[in-house]
Amino acid sequence: MKIHHIAIICSDYEISKKFYTEVLGLNIIREVYREERQSFKLDLAIGDHYMIELFSFPDPPARPSRPEACGLRHLAFLVENVNEKREELIQKGLNCEEIRIDEFTEKAFFFTQDPDQLPLEFYEV
C-alpha cells in the first residue's frame, strides 16, 4: 500500500538525533530507551507523517555507504526549492554536492550525508 517507515541505526545517537531534528527539522513523535537492548529508539515525522525510526545499539558494525555499494542507496526528501534547501543546509554546516538535473524528469536535486555518511538526496517538486 505504501512505505510505513525507514529504520536507521546510527553510530552516535545524540549527534544523529540533533542532525535529524535540528538540521533537517524532523519532528519527534516519541523517544524511548530500551534497557534490555541498551538502545534508544526515536520516532520521527516529516510534518505529521511518521517516517523514520532512529536507533542506537552498542557497537553496530560499519556498513559501506558509497552510492554504488550494495544495500540502500540513499534516502530522498521532496522539497519545494532545492536551491533554498541546499543553501539552508550549507549554512548549518553540511557539505552539499552541486545541484544536478535529472535527465529523465528534468527536476533539480542534490546530495549530502547524515552524520554516519548515509547519502541523503533532496529532490525538487
TrEMBL record:
Pfam families for this protein: Glyoxalase
VOC domain segment(s): 2-125
Keywords: Metal-binding
Domain of life of the native organism: Bacteria
InterPro entries attached to this UniProt entry: Fosfomycin_Res_Enzymes, Glyas_Bleomycin-R_OHBP_Dase, Glyas_Fos-R_dOase_dom, VOC_core, YwkD-like_dom
Protein name per the record: VOC family protein
Native source organism of the sequence: Chryseobacterium nepalense
